[in-house]
Design goal:
This protein is an alpha+beta fold. It has an 8-stranded mixed β-sheet, sandwiched between helices. Helix 2 links the parallel strand 3 and strand 4. The chain is built from 18 helices and 28 strands. The longest helix is centred in the first third of the chain and has 27 residues. The mean pLDDT is about 90.
């Protein structure tokens, strides 16, 4: 510990107060650093979060957290609960020190203390359900079934007087049958009643999102049901969710419920379960984007959305009163990008803006229902995303299942302010034909997609370059005539589709395979985005977008997906008008992103090994790592 104290003192935090053998607080004036040494081999996000929450309930509340195991380090800005690249020195510039302090209520403090307990409980329940093999075949099935039981518990708490209206449970009060005491008493009968009740409650209006075209999107598909039948599972889960011990608010003690958890503590607990237990099915392209990538992408996008003030965030439609901000992801998976943007926008509105806080709270409640839009073709991922969003306080968030994200017509072109996405990619992912040995099989869906993405090419093979047109199902031949391709990487088409969906000036942060950025065969894609370089003036002419940044990611970033492709974050701004000029491009290389992959498992290396933190800081300061 002496070595840690020496290091923090050298940064200017000269006053040291020991908390216990592994923890101390170092301070300089009103800035406090909570320092803790742990035995864990890895600094997993949940470990760092527990310690951050510890630091929040210290008096006075800590400004920064430094967690170390002697090898790896994690640094956190407490008020924003976000990773930073280092603890700032007080000698460099005291104005850089973070001044804002968060005020915690009794409920906040209770919630933060509950985080670790709930996280360990959820982990144990997952293991128990998996071990019982009660109609679940894998870890992801367990997450889905557990999600349904959490969904029912949140419904019970928000609808204590709800009487069931269908089937054998007609007339029964749901609040009475969805109790662990009731299941202990009635066993199999109670389980059947709960399963019957789920069929009705899953379609409740409080959980139905409305899409652009007026269509309704439920969390659960029409034929979804609870598979679990063992009463002991229900007893264990409901006891864990309902028996949370006492809570004391303003001197009055009462039994606590999940509704008492403030902020997104419950959502964070679920997110840890999801990331810890999700089985990556690389071959199906189903995997979770690492949190280090979603964090960096969201931080940059929010910075650009708000650099000229809050207007884009707080705008409302004068006719409907609905917030106009729209953040999207057509391949949303478990909604990692959307949740990160939700959290950052909430923090910005409620803590960075001056004025009527109540007004911003009401605005944010509306935003949760309208502003974060997602789609995915995997029903299991849509379920996880909707539950994840619901536990982060957005049960009506418009995330929906689509047969094909490239072809769905439920979203209007030109309506999004920002899209953050990690689409599937594969060289021949979309193809008119499929060749196996000497046999060629026609692929009508591939042909349909390629044709649809050639709709902005006229009869003479010229690209109209309409602001909302689609062209990248074709490519120009040696004479410049655009013709349909036989096959194309879906990532190319997703660039086209996302640019179509953006408003003029809208932002696109997309993970792409490096080939799109460098292969000679993909030069037409780059020219479609940026235009062609005039050899005389050196300026780019034509093109649909301004290239803002390229951040190269290391090979292991998506190793868990089974994709061997080297990738980058490509950051574009849709042109506000055709003559808009390309400016300097921010270029950066992340050699490390805070983890490596060993035996198909992410091994956390800490913030010292996450280059994205410094890259984001450099971008926000407007200091290009390397201007191109």
């Amino acid at each position: 510990m002496q070595e840690l104290k020496s290091k923090i003192t050298k940064l200017g935090y000269g006053t040291i107060k020991d908390i216990d053998e592994t923890t101390f607080v170092a301070s300089h004036k009103d800035t406090y650093v909570y320092v803790k040494k742990v035995d864990e081999e890895q600094l997993k996000p949940e470990v760092v979060t527990v310690i951050t929450y510890e630091a929040m309930v210290t008096d006075p509340i800590s400004t920064y957290v430094w967690v170390t195991n002697g090898t790896s380090n994690a640094y956190v800005l407490v008020a924003e609960e976000k990773a930073i690249s280092e603890i700032p020195s007080v000698f460099e510039d005291e104005s850089n020190l973070y001044a804002w302090k968060r005020e915690l209520t009794d409920r906040d403090k209770w919630s933060l203390r509950k985080y670790q307990e709930l996280q360990e409980t959820f982990d144990g329940l997952h293991e128990m359900i998996y071990g019982m093999k009660d109609h679940v075949n894998n870890s992801n099935d367990v997450i889905d079934e557990f999600s349904k039981l959490i969904f029912l518990e949140t419904f019970r708490l928000y609808h204590p007087e709800y009487r069931l209206t269908k089937g054998n449970v007609t007339g029964k009060l749901f609040n009475e049958i969805y109790r662990y005491e009731y299941v202990e008493k009635h066993k199999d009968k109670a389980v059947q009643e709960i399963r019957e009740a789920f069929k009705e409650i899953k379609d409740h209006a409080d959980y139905v999102a409305i899409l652009d075209n007026g269509e309704k999107a439920n969390i659960f598909s029409a034929d979804e049901y609870i598979k679990l039948e063992n009463p002991n599972i229900y007893i264990a889960v409901l006891k864990a969710l309902q028996d949370l011990g006492p809570i004391k608010i303003d001197g009055v003690e009462r039994p606590a419920t999940l509704r008492d958890l403030t902020g997104d503590v419950l959502g964070r607990v679920f997110d840890v379960l999801l990331r810890g237990k999700f089985e990556n099915k690389g071959g199906m392209g189903i995997y979770l984007t690492p949190r280090q990538v979603t964090e960096a992408a969201a931080e940059i996008v929010l910075h650009d959305l708000t650099k000229d003030g809050a207007a884009k965030l707080i705008g409302k439609d004068p006719k409907t009163g609905i917030p106009t901000l729209r953040i999207g992801d057509l391949c949303c998976g478990s909604a990692g990008f959307l949740i990160k943007m939700l959290q950052k926008i909430e923090h910005y509105l409620l803590n960075k803006l001056t004025g009527d806080k109540k007004q911003y709270e009401e605005l944010f409640e509306q935003m949760k229902e309208h502003c974060f839009i997602g789609a995915d073709n995997a029903p299991g991922m849509v379920l996880k995303a909707r539950i994840n969003m619901a536990l982060h306080g957005a049960p009506k968030c418009p995330i929906f299942q689509t047969r094909n994200s490239l072809m769905n017509t439920r979203l209007k072109p030109g309506t999004f302010d920002a899209i953050l996405t990690n689409p599937p990619f594969s060289k021949t992912g979309i193809s008119k034909t499929i060749k196996k040995g000497n046999t060629t099989v026609e692929n009508p869906e591939g042909a349909e997609i390629i044709k649809y993405y050639s709709s902005d090419i006229d009869e003479d093979g010229q690209n109209r370059m309409s602001p909302y047109g689609l062209s990248l199902g074709s490519k120009p031949d040696s004479r410049g005539k655009w013709k349909e391709v036989n096959s194309v990487d879906p990532a190319v088409l997703f660039i086209d589709r996302n640019l179509q969906l953006l408003k003029p000036g809208g932002l696109l942060m997309i993970v792409v395979p490096d080939g799109i950025l460098s292969n000679s065969g993909d030069k037409y894609v780059r020219e479609y985005i940026m235009g062609k370089k005039n050899p005389v003036t050196g300026e780019f002419e034509g093109g649909k977008a301004i290239l803002k940044a390229v951040i190269s990611l290391p090979q292991e970033t998506f190793a868990l997906s089974g994709a061997g492709a080297k990738t980058s974050l490509l950051y574009l701004k849709k042109k506000e008008h055709p003559g808009e000029k390309q400016g300097p491009v921010f270029m950066a290389v992340a050699d490390e992103v805070g983890f490596t992959v060993k035996q198909n498992v992410e091994v956390q290396l800490g913030d010292d090994h996450n280059d994205l933190l410094k890259i984001v800081e450099a971008y926000k300061k407007g200091m290009p790592e390397e201007e191109q």
